[in-house]
Design a protein that fits this description.
Elements: E1 26-29, H1 42-57, H2 62-76, H3 79-86, H4 91-98, H5 103-106, H6 111-118, E2 123-127, H7 132-142, E3 150-152, H8 154-157, H9 165-174, E4 183-187, H10 190-198, E5 202-206, E6 218-219
Helix pairs in contact: 1-2, 2-3
The structure holds magnesium ion.
Residues 30, 32-34, 187-189 line the site of magnesium ion.
Length: 242
């Protein structure tokens, strides 16, 4: 079988050879900090607005907001699911508020990523713990809107979200029930990869290799995807970066 990895580039090899998957592949790609770099400023801004919402709308004392957000995120997958479980919160109002960030200040069109993702003969879904409107706006700023076959957002996943295993079952359903083994899940959060792996998805981390679970190869940017997932039946297409 093929060797998609460039020898020496990663600290550890992936446990799975993706070569045989091509043709009926489905890609599930996270949105925030995966489709664009984690240091873009978008997520920091959203997180600040989550804190504002918790303080100003929900009336949580400012001194408690940060620790509570981290605790809810760790225990419930998202701050929203934690708030829903522990107090009255208007979900639509929350989602509208926290995602109201000036995306074009942080993001610019990404023709390189567009070319790379378009090259995969695979169905492609955004699979996000954010909401659909936010995803649509991000895709528009990046000029990737027409690349994807669909968006699976937190509203569709209710009452679940990543990394709950149920969210992965639902994602498969929304994508028309492809075999999980024929699906590649790409995310910047290791805990999401672990959940996806438990549901038989193939997984790739966008982020530092030392954070990757043993079964997942890591790439520093989504545009590096061809390094670990061959574009055309085992052949890495040359010239993608030109
Ligand atoms: Mg993310």
């Amino acid at each position: 079988m093929g060797h998609a990895l460039r020898t020496g580039f990663f600290e550890k090899p992936p446990a799975f050879d993706y070569t045989g998957l091509m043709g009926e592949l489905t890609l599930f790609i996270d949105l925030d900090d995966t489709l664009y770099p984690a240091d873009s400023g978008v997520w920091q801004d959203i997180r600040n607005r989550i804190d504002l919402y918790m303080r100003d709308v929900l009336g949580i004392p400012a001194a408690e907001v940060n620790a509570l957000r981290q605790d809810l995120f760790a225990r419930y997958g998202t701050t929203l699911r934690g708030l829903e479980a522990s107090m009255q919160v208007d979900t639509a109002d929350y989602l509208r508020f926290v995602h109201d960030v000036p995306l074009s200040r942080y993001l610019t069109p990404n023709p390189e990523l567009r070319q790379i993702l378009s090259g995969y003969p695979a169905r492609k879904f955004i699979f996000t713990n954010g909401d659909r409107l936010h995803a649509l706006r991000v895709l528009e700023v990046l000029e990737l809107s027409d690349i994807f076959d669909g968006i699976i957002d937190i509203t569709m996943l209710s009452p679940y979200c990543k990394p709950m295993p149920e969210a992965f079952d639902m994602a498969l359903k929304f994508a028309g029930n492809p075999q999980a083994q024929q699906c590649v899940f790409i995310d910047d959060a290791p805990r999401n990869l672990i959940a996806a792996h438990s549901r038989q998805f193939q997984t790739i981390l966008v982020g530092p290799a030392d954070l990757a679970p043993p079964f997942a190869p890591a790439i520093p940017r989504l545009a590096d995807l061809p390094r670990v997932l061959p574009v055309n039946r085992g052949q890495i297409v040359e010239g993608l970066h030109e």
